[in-house]
Structure formats: structure tokens, C-alpha cells
Batch of 3 targets.
Target 1
Amino acid sequence: MSVAVTHLAFVSMLFATGASQGAQRWAHDLVVLDDAADFLGAAASSAYRAQVDEVAPLRLSVGPQDPDPHADRRWREEVAGRFDRAPTSDELSSWYVSPPLRPVAGFEQLLLSWNIDCPAQAGVCVELRVRESDERDWTPWLYVGDWGTSLPAPLALERERGRQLESQTGPKCVAADGAKIDVDFFTSERTWSAAQLRIRAMASGDQLNRSVIVRRVALCFSRRTDEPAPSFTLTKEAIRRIDVPFRSQKTERPEIAGRICSPTSVAMALAYRGLEVDTLAAAERIFDSAHDIYGNWTRAIQGAYSFGAPGYLARFSDWNEVARHIADGTPLVISIAAKEGELDGAPYPKTAGHLLVLCGFDEKGDVHVNDPAASTPQSGQLVYRRDQLERVWMARGGTSYVILAPRKD
């Protein structure tokens, strides 16, 4: 059973229980775009060579020629004339800009993830910009990530109403105006009110009539909070260990075995979803060569999707919400960091960053996990104290991969 996702709904998740005194509290708002109405955004989006329909739901035409010369006209009609300019780069084959997306009470961090069908010799680049209020200017576009083999070049020149926002040349922009992309997520010391995403696609070669299909984009907004914490009520449906097949990251090549907790956890989640993917194959596809890491969160979600399992990045700070996922049969791949003595029974004394699979709850409300740092199922299928996991996971952001069942169509 997969998790139901509300279109453009804001799901507020507050920090739970008082067990971790002094730990940072967070509130999270999740926004998911996964149908045509979401991407059109009440006629507030804009695009070039892009179409929306019930099947795609967002289709970006790519290739050396436009396979549908009327696509931009139809979009103009659908979104009430929002087209006001053409692309500023000859390399740009297609693009989409979302409507402004606003969480309930502002945000300081933002996770962006996507499920995109990208054909051979094509690629996409995903960017983000933010602003503090409707009266303030947007920041320049910040590069978040990409996917595919033919990637759009950095679009350094961006004009709007005659105003130049970025320079003509230079590398991908990842920081501006007190905001930055820290490898795979947006972070700032300031509070922002709105965000927009931009997806650009292009292709090489001489094939025509190809499309990049955007199935889902998810944005998880986060802010620090002092709001009261909800109490945790463990339901009988959540008292279970979901049968996620165990895998150890230590079985792979010694030179990478200590670095592949993320793809190993993804491979476990895929196996649970009925998709048998070799751990090394998952690692190779998810690998972020720009940062030389296997733990890029956005690439993990898109990598899982490329193997057949849709999903999204989310953050959790309410154990009741976690329990609902477990009751629905949805394990979570979670990102933790633990100092020495913070996580009893773990197969490591401490970790600056690690991913594992959260599989359920026992009768006391403690947490079943598959920890890939262990060598065997006997040593890796563990129960961690919930209060300790709250500190090393939720208080550090609560980042999770939510990997769903394969699409049936």
C-alpha cells in the first residue's frame, strides 16, 4: 500500500514528544505536484515547449527541432497569456517555471525531489529561487541537481521586464542573497515566504519527437519552531516489523563499502517493493560525481524512480505521522547523525551521516530498523530507542526517502 499524497497540500508535521530535551524542533510543510492542475497552478506557471495533460502530467519537448510548433501557443491559451519571453540560450530546448509556492509560515530549509522519465541523449536541470515577501525581488536561480546524459548548460543570463538578474558567464549558481544549495538541499539563516522551481530540458542527437516526462515534484519546506509538541499514540496497526529484506553495505567493494549506506538502503526499499536491484548497480546510478558522494538525497529519489519505484523526499517531526506510514506498509529510509553514546546498540560508535531503513515499532514504541552498516541480518535488524532516534534523526531535520510501490500503468 502506498502513501496517499495530497496535490498541492500543505502537511504540517510538528516535533513530537518531550524525550529529547534541548533538541532542535522543526515544522515541515510538504507540497507535491503530480497532476496537470498542480503544474498549471491556477494559470500562474509559465513554460516553453511544454504541455500538461492527465497522463504525463508535464511533458517537455526536447530535440534539435520542436516536434509540436503549437505547444507554446496552447500553453499560452491555457495559462491566460503568461508567456512574456523566449529562452535566452540556443541550447535551451524546453523549460517550465512553477507558480510561487508558499508554506504555511515561511521556511529556512527546503528539500526538492522529482520523478522524471528522461529518454536517451536527453537531460534535465532543476533549479530553485526564493523571495522573502511579495514586495521583494526573487533571488537568482539556484542550481539544485540534474539527471540524464545531455544536460542543459548553466543559464547565466536571465532577463525579466528588461532587468538583468545574472551575469552572462560563470558556473552554476548555488548561493546568493544569504541562501544556498548545500549539496542537495536549500538552506538559509533567513526566513523566506515563497519558492519557485524551474525545470529545463534538452537533448542531443538527431532524433525527433522525444519528450521528458515530469511525473512528480515534491518540495518539503522546513522551519525551526517552538510550537508545542504533539503526544505520540502508538496504534496497534503500527506495531509491526515491515518485511524489508536486509542488505549490508559491507558486502560490496572495500573501497566504497563505507560510503554506500544510501544506495544500500534504497536497494532494500526497492526489494521490498518487488524490484530486485543489485546494490552496486544502485550505487553507480545514484552516485553524485560533482561532489564524489553516494548519499545525494535528490539523486537517491530519482535513482529509485529510474528503477521503477516512485517516491519523494520528506521530513518528519511527528511520530504519529511515521506510525501512519508504517501502518500503511511504507518503510522510510532515514538520514541520521549521532555522536558517541547517542544511539545504543548501533554497529558504530558514532556517525557524521548515515542512512538506514525504519521498518516499524515494537510494543514499547521503540523502532525497528535495518541498519546497512552491520554485516548480517542478525546484527543489522535492530531495535533503536525511540527517544534516541528522535534526537539523531528528527532533531537533525528528520530527512527521509519515501519510496512507493511501482506504478501499475
Target 2
Amino acid sequence: MNTTSSAYQHHLKGLLVEHYHEQRSAKKIHPQKAYHIQGFMEAGLLLGSIDKPTLEQLIDLAHQEVFDCPYQARHQPKVENTSLLDIPTWLRRKTG
């Protein structure tokens, strides 16, 4: 890893940790910051400052630091009652 790549990854991790802390305390995502980070990640991939597996690992590290769990564990859908999934949607009764 060269110095530019290392500086890029260090800055990106800082952006992610800051964003996750704001998300955790405010319970919402700030779209402008999310778009900024997304663009920064795309630029890093395009310029070769980071590769996709390293990027995913960096996201997990930052997420683990703030939320104490990997990114995927927090973003998987939680389905408690799967019995409704066996019924076609057009037959399900609306609730609430």
C-alpha cells in the first residue's frame, strides 16, 4: 500500500466513523454527507486508491467501531413471522 492509498483509507475511515456516529445519535441519515462519502468511495475505486474488498473491510471496521457489529449484521432484514410469506400477496389481509 502506497502513501496516497494509506492517506485515502485513513481519511475515508474517518468520514465513515463520523457519519456513523451522527447516524447513531440522530437516528437518521444525512443525505448530503452520505452522497459525499459515496462519491469519495467511487473516486477511490476509480483512481485505484482502494479496491472493492478493502473498501468493504474498511466499511465493516468503521461500522464495528461505532455500532459494535458488522455492517451486514445490522442491515439484514429481520423477518419475525415468516408464515405470511407462504401466502400470495394478493390473498394476504391488510393489517392496521
Target 3
Amino acid sequence: MPELSLENIEKLLDNKLEPVNTKLAAIEEIVSGHTEILDKHTDILDSIAKDVKNWNTEMTMVRARLDRHDIWFKQVSEKLDLKLES
């Protein structure tokens, strides 16, 4: 039986933990790859969200403009004594 010294215990632990360290390194590499993909997806989603927000703002402005035009058409038709049909 080997002598119980700190050096021998450290060597034994190193030998026992080597497979665990190898697996952890492989897992770390996989997670790193997933993190990069997740970052790209997040950037794409941010871009889509920005486009949707801009589109919603534009549609709100268009609706307001159409409402204004409807009011103007009604005012003009009243002044000209015309009946607007839907």
C-alpha cells in the first residue's frame, strides 16, 4: 500500500478527477457554442422587434392621417351639400 502523504493523495485525486475535468471541458465547449447561437438569435429578435415597433408607429400615423381625411371629406361634402355613401 502506498504511503499516505499529501503528494500521493494529490496524485490519486488528479488521476481520479482527470475524466471529470475532460468531460467538463467538453461541456464547456458545447455551452460556448450554444451561447454564440443564442446571442445571434437574440440580435435577430431585437431587430425584428424594432421593425415591428417602427411598423406599428407608421400604421398609427397612417390611421390618424386617414381619420383626418375622412373628417375633411365630410366637411367638404357638407359645404357642397353632397351625400357621401359608404
